[in-house]
Structures are given as C-alpha cells and as structure tokens.
Amino acid sequence: MTIFKTLGAVAALTLFAQPAFAQDADAMDHSKMDHSEMETMDHSKMKTMDHSDMNMMEGMDHSKMDHSGHDHAAKTSDDSNEIISEGTHTVVAKVNGLVCDFCAQALRKVFKKEDAVETISVDLDAGEVRVFLKDGQILSDDRLAKLIRKSGYSLVDITHENGA
Amino acid sequence: MCRRLTTLLAALLLAESAYARPVSYPGGWTLMQRNNGDRSAIHAHYSPTAFDSFGVYIEKNWDEDVTFTGLQYNRLVKRFNGPSSQANIYAKAGIGQADPFGSAGAELAGFVEFAADWETRRWFTEYRLRTADFADNESVHHSARLGVAPYIGDYGDLHTWFMVEVQNHPDGDKPITTTPLIRLFKGVQMIELGYTVEENEWLANWIVRF
Ligand SMILES: [Cu+2]
Fold first, then answer.
1. What is the CATH classification number for the domain harbouring B55?
2. Is A159 exposed, middle or buried (0-12, 13-18, 19+ CB in 10 A)?
3. Model confidence pTM above 0.80
4. Option in B21, B31, B40 nearest A14 (CB)
C-alpha cells in the first residue's frame, strides 16, 4: 500500500532530522492573556534577595536535598544532577492540567528558552513543575506564571526553595 | 501523488532541520498522518502559540472519491485545566481544492471541524464533528472516542492506551462503524493501530511533534 510507504518514508526522514529540532524552544506571545491572579502575589521578598552568597552551597550534594514527593524518574531534563546541584535556587510550581508527556515537553520547551533557567523537571503525579535556576539567577513569580500560561497550563501556587 | 507528498514533506522537514538552530524559532511543528477506511490524510502544522496552529492538509477521501488539498487552521478555543485533568475545545477549518478521482478539474472546497476532549492520565474521551464540502459533495461526520490506560507510566516511558472509536456518517452505506484501537505514545511520537469491524479496514495514525 502506497500510503504505508509514504508513512515509512516520512518516519525515516523525521527520525533522521530529529536531533536538530530537539534543541528548539517554543516562544509565544501571550500579552493578551489574563494575568490578573498574579498581581496579588508578593514579590517584594524576591527582589531584595541577595544571591551573591550562593556559593556557600558549593560542594552540597544534591542527593541530600529533600526530594520527597518528587519523582526523579519523571525528570524531563537530560542534564545530570551534578551540574544543577551547586548553588541552585529552586522554584516549585503547582500546576493544573498536566496529564501526559506532551504537557511536560511543552513546559520544558518554553522554560528552556528562559535565560535564568538551568533545567526543569515535571512531576505529572504531583502536578508539580520544579524549576532549577542557574547560579545566582532569579525568576520572578509573575514571570514564572507567564511561562506556565504560555505553555498552556494553569498555575496554582509557587514555593521557593533557597537551597537551604 | 504519494511521491509528490513525500517530496513536499521531505523538503519541509529538511528545510526545518537546517534552519531551526540559526534563526529564532518561535513555535513547534506537528506532523500527523491518519489512515482508515474512509480517508488517508496528512497534516503538517506549525504552532506560533500554544493556542493555535496552521499548516497544510491533504486528504484522499475513499468515501467520496475525492482528493482535498488545502490549508488548515486550528484554534484551541478553550482549555480547562484541572488538578489531574485537562479538557479542550478546538475549532478547525480548512480551505483548498477538491479534485474528484479521475476528473480533470478541481473545485473550491472546505471543511470545518469542532472537537472536544477530556482526559486524565487514566481516561480519555473525545468527540469530533466535521462538515465538509468537497466538490459539491457535502458531508457530515461524527466521531467519538473512549480510552483507558492500563498502566500509568512515568515521563519518557512507553504509554499505552486501549481505545474504541465510534464513527457516524449519516449518509454513508454503513452509518455507524466501530474501531477498537491501541495507542502507543513515547517521547514525541504517537502511533495508533486499529481495525474497523464493519468495514474490514485498518486504521493507522501517526503523530510526531518537534
Ligand atoms: Cu499532555
């Protein structure tokens, strides 16, 4: 059947071409979206936070961090834990609407494009997106909310884990 | 026809892989193939946002003996995000030309589609309604799906769904058809294989996202 030949040809092409796509991040303009719920958040603490002493966490072992309730098998990142463990500030977003791997991929693509973000992991069971920031970087709550919305999902709440 | 289609897609995909890195690339691409007893179709689309996409759509309709070639626009009208569920309402429209098999001339043609779905990690339901006008041949087509995942895999695992699709074409020889199918989903690829009982026809769908 010719249709299956076509399918096979396209499949082969796609698989061949894939590594080049894998790096891309999606960027979308959602300036028209409703962000009203974010305006009630308090960002004052974040803006005054000093990240200059982040290197106090150097040598910290990522495995000692509290990851209860967070499934490492569900990590979307291909980066190793060692790279993100030093001096990392982590933001955990509780997100509604996460039901499959495509959801996790959409978030990953959007967050990968954000300069402050080292990597993210998505826990579909817990409905949590864990954002690992680069050394000394911050991600404001409203920016985080915008990225979640841009990916097509709804933010419920945000928790900061300041590497402590 | 199939060779031309392959060439077109090859060009599209290769151009994409060559240019995606150096130029800023705002969205994602999706390639879908759908084959069943009624039609074989291919749809390649680009999403500038998470809420809409546009692309090319080519369909060989075995029911109506016509080939449709055109552009398609898809809009996520509304998404409802629940703590462990997601529901979506989509509107889709296509415009192009319909070329009846064996005829010389093509005619202006189009279709509109409405789709709604609701899913959790365990359950999947979907309803679609399409009305098409292909070369003076108007048709209405309903389809509904129910699916269950026998196990809940982790991210990156092979995900499996057992589904049943019921189709209704009020004007057709067999107005109602039933297609049990299996959906396999891993990484960016999704494959569906099924069998339409009433028509003794296979279903084979394939979706890949970049
Ligand atoms: Cu999903």
1. 2.40.160.40
2. exposed
3. no
4. B31
